[in-house]
Amino acid sequence: MIGSDKRSAEIPRPILVEACVDSVASSLAAERGGARRLELCDALFDGGTTPSAGMIAACKEAVSIPVFVMIRARGGGFVCSDAERDVMRRDIIVARELGADGVVIGGLCPDGNVDLDLVRYLVETARALPVTFHRAFDLTPDPAAALESLAGAGVQRILTAGGASTAVEGTAVLAQLVRQAGSRIVVMAGGGVREENVRALVAASGVREVHVRLTRLTHGGELPAHRGLRVRRPLPENEAEWEETDELRVRSFVEAVADLPQARKPQS
User: Fold this and answer.
1) Beta-bridge mates of residue 132
2) Does 148 score more than 90 pLDDT?
3) What is the Cα–Cα distance from 34 to 36, expressed in whole angstroms?
4) Angle at CA 243, nearest 5°, toward 247 and 67?
5) What's phi and psi for 108, nearest 5 deg?
6) Which residues pair with 70 in a beta bridge?
7) Which CATH class is domain 13-212?
8) pTM for the whole structure
9) Cα–Cα distance between 84 and 70 in angstroms, integer?
10) Residue 13 burial (CB count, 10 A)
């Protein structure tokens, strides 16, 4: 009996596939396809930000698998201002109230190390919800030290490509992190994980959870009157940059229109 229990304990658990989604349709598709957990985001073209309250509620209503909600106030870098920290706190409270099964957070200090004050603050706000630290981890200068810090701060899971652009490129570091983590914290591989590379990645790294996007191009049915019209804009080349309203430009613009003559009232 003892030997049987030991052998059972050594049987690896099945690979858990977490799908990164940004809509109800994608959530349903991922669940039908066999994903066992969702990471729900907005703005995936910019690395993912917090989805709306309506999206969280709709996805929770639509699927039966766990939904982990991305908590990120903006794209572009991971050093957070005081205002952004407060937004993230508020978003966790909303996600919790809407029935989220977990939250996904992250934040770095200017030197690239994990912002432990922020992590502890958000873990405390999450209360009993499990917490994943997202791929900001891959920008830290010392992944081993970062893992220890996060495990000590109450984080349950790290999403990482082993400090590389893709998990395949970071396989060796992923394997080291899996060994270091043991059963204390889950190391989940993400970044370019595809059907054609996942088996080799799992075998070489030892990860038991993988994070995927796995999309196809789709489109709306409308035929635009102006086919050359574009409302999307390219993102900044620098990953740490983002656009923010410029007070001086707003003031200059307001001054430029301040002395324009008032519009005449239309004659009846």
Assistant:
1) 104, 157
2) yes
3) 6
4) 125
5) -125, 155
6) 104
7) alpha beta
8) 0.88
9) 14
10) 7
Neighbours of 182 (CB within 10 A): 9
Residue 110 backbone zone (phi > 0: left; psi -120 to 50: alpha; other: beta): alpha
Distance CA 232, CA 230 (A): 6
Which has the closest alpha carbon to 207: 194, 190, 191, 220?
190
Which residues lie across from 108 on neighbouring strands?
Answer: 114
List Cα–Cα distances, 193 to 47, 95, 161, 168, 202, in angstroms. 16, 27, 9, 7, 10
Cβ(35)–Cβ(19) under 8 Å?
A: yes
How confident is the model over 232-266, as pLDDT tens digits? 778 888 887 878 888 898 899 888 889 888 877 77
Query: What's the per-residue H, E or C state across the chain?
Result: CHHHHHHHHHCCCCCEEEEEECCHHHHHHHHHHCCCEEEECECHHHCCECCCHHHHHHHHHHCCCCEEEECCCCCCCCCCCHHHHHHHHHHHHHHHHCCCCEEEECCECCCCCECHHHHHHHHHHHCCCCEEECHHHHHCCCHHHHHHHHHHCCCCEEEECCCCCCCCCCHHHHHHHHHHHCCCCEEEEECCCCCCCHHHHHHHHCCCEEEECCCCCCCCCCCCCCCCCCCCCCCCCCCCCCCCCCHHHHHHHHHHHHCCCCCCCCCC
Written as six digits, the tokens of 210 are 């993988």
